[in-house]
């Protein structure tokens, strides 16, 4: 607590798709073990290091355990502000890593082995809450940033734009955002699927189900551990708490599924899709700019321009404040995606140098 903590950055390399294999794409990304990955292609030969690297054969469970996600859940229960965000080119496996396969519904759930970081974290959170002797209140809020508008994915009716405010005590926050309480795994998974189905997606040349918005699902964890029998002499504490009550803790666990970075000419996008792509790329550029400045030593940092986009405002605390953050960088191993893959690797390498004070 209060010590400088680096962003934890892990890398996931998806398998070559059937289309890429049929087309004859070469695999240019190779895992070297011990968190290292090597990119070898014409005029490009580079090695990058991360906290962990998950290659094409890694299971969803291996990613959950090896990324440190379980520890993040426990820290959220201890009152810390925790964030995990998935970043990478469109079609690189971000949504699959976080949620599992597409097409899930309450009536047609995904096979347990394919569940993503979100559902596994929910299970871990509820198991931990039952094993700890604590009064726990859990609630969830879910929003998307689409064309620089913040929209609630859980409120009934058509999504409408919500104002983004700033206060000295809360930092940046979304006004009038709906927060829904839940007590079971079925309830929170239902909220996740309900919100995801309302999220903006479109098909283009690189991805048949491309996310056209950034989505943020936040789990609010409020707990107050109470012991039935106070230690001798405890009784009423200095703050008036009875029965040996511990102070309440309020933590958050935020999952951020960033829309994919993309080159408009490669996606074949035009009209509204092109406007969406440009909006996505602008906000990702603003995020990259903030990360670059945060990666500098504290004494050499200039002003961090969080206000340049709604995305960076909402991630301000996670990136440079008092939170604990895990970044999952997702890439394609295909030679055709080399430029975007290198861009993601450089982006993720810079993020490793960012520090926060939880």
From TrEMBL:
Entry similarity comment: Belongs to the TRAFAC class myosin-kinesin ATPase superfamily. Kinesin family.
Domain Kinesin motor per the UniProt entry, residue ranges: 6-354
One function term, GO molecular function aspect: ATP binding
Localisation: Cytoplasm, Cytoskeleton
Keyword annotations from UniProtKB, A to Z: ATP-binding, Cytoplasm, Cytoskeleton, Microtubule, Motor protein, Nucleotide-binding
Pfam families (alphabetical): Kinesin
Residue ranges the record marks as coiled coil: none
GO CC term (a single one): microtubule associated complex
Gene responsible for this protein: Kif12
The protein's name in its UniProt record: Kinesin-like protein
Chain positions recorded as ATP binding sites: 88-95
BP GO annotations: microtubule-based movement; mitotic spindle organization; spindle elongation
Main location: cytoplasm
Organism encoding this protein: Cardinalis cardinalis
């Amino acid at each position: 607590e209060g010590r400088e903590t680096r962003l934890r950055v892990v890398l996931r390399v998806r398998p070559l798709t059937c289309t890429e294999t049929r087309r004859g794409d070469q695999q240019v990304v190779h895992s070297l073990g011990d968190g290292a990955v090597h990119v070898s292609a014409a005029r490009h030969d580079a090695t990058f290091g991360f906290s962990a690297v998950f290659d094409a054969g890694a299971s969803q469970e291996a990613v959950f355990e090896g990324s440190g996600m379980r520890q993040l859940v426990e820290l959220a229960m201890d009152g810390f502000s925790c964030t995990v965000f998935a970043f990478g080119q469109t079609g690189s496996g971000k949504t699959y890593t976080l949620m599992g396969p597409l097409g899930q519904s309450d009536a047609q759930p995904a096979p347990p082995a394919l569940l993503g970081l979100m559902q596994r974290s929910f299970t871990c959170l509820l198991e931990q809450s039952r094993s700890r002797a604590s009064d726990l209140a859990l609630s969830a809020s879910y929003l998307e940033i689409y064309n620089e508008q913040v929209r609630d994915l859980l409120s009934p009716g058509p999504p409408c734009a919500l104002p983004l405010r700033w206060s000295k005590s809360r930092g940046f926050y979304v006004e009038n955002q709906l927060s829904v309480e839940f007590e079971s795994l079925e309830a929170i998974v239902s909220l996740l699927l309900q919100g995801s189905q309302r999220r903006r997606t479109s098909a283009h040349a690189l991805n048949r189900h491309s996310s056209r918005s950034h989505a943020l699902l936040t789990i609010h964890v409020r707990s107050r551990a109470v012991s039935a029998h106070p230690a001798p002499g405890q009784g009423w504490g200095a703050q008036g708490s009875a029965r040996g009550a511990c102070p309440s803790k309020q933590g958050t666990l935020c999952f951020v599924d960033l829309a994919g970075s993309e080159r408009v000419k490669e996606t074949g996008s035009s009209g509204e899709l092109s406007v969406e792509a440009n909006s996505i790329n602008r906000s990702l550029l603003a995020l990259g700019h903030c990360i670059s400045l945060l990666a500098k030593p504290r004494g050499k940092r200039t002003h961090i321009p969080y206000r340049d986009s709604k995305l960076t405002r909402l991630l301000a605390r996670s990136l440079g404040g008092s939170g604990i953050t895990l970044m999952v960088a997702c890439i394609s191993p295909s030679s055709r995606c080399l430029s975007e893959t290198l861009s993601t690797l450089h982006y993720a390498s810079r993020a490793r140098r960012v520090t926060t004070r939880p």
